[in-house]
Amino acid sequence: MNALRKEIESAIRKAGAILTPPEPMLTGAMVELVYDDPNDLTGPVSLRITAGRNSSTYTASTILTFTDISGTAIVNSALSSPVANVQQYAVGSTANIGAQGAGQDGRDGLPPTATELRGNALAKTGIYASTRSIFSTSCRCLMLPSSLLQT
């Protein structure tokens, strides 16, 4: 199966290279083997084809589609049931593109008030929510020898 992966990747890259100008989304394309069960490398496998990212036209929502014009066995076996999908899922995107459904727009309310940020030490809310103060975990004091402090 890895030999088939290499052949398809090479064919896509060559097709991108012969275009004028060459298409970086194709010349840098990658083909990966995706096993249904990563622990069983003898089981069902799919090919994931991703666009090269060195193109000025590349976006996370780029969708590559392929058409079989040759009818050869290698193409028919590799692209028997293609699923068009985006290159990367966009968190908070409301777009319905490829297999990515329309999601939430990412807003989850108003920012906390100063009182909510300060919180309550006894109730362990706000900056007291962790077992240690936020300042003791994020700030480090620089300790200098006293000889450097004398003028």
Polypeptide structure, described:
- The chain is of the alpha+beta class.
- The protein has 2 domains: 2-78, no CATH class; 110-139, no CATH class.
- Mean pLDDT is 76; it is low at 133-144.
- The chain has helices at 2-17, 24-27, 73-78, 114-118, 134-138, 146-149, and strands spanning 30-35, 45-50.
- Strands 1-2 form a two-stranded antiparallel ribbon.
- The chain starts with a helix and ends with a helix.
- It contains 6 helices and 2 strands, in the order ααββαααα.
Distance between termini?
73 Å
Order of helices and strands: HHEEHHHH
Treating each run of at least 4 consecutive H or I residues as one helix, how many helices?
6
Radius of gyration, in angstroms, nearest whole number: 26 Å
The major pleated sheet works out as: 2 strands, antiparallel
Shape: elongated
Number of domains as seen in the coordinates: 2
User: Strand-residue fraction?
Assistant: 5-15%
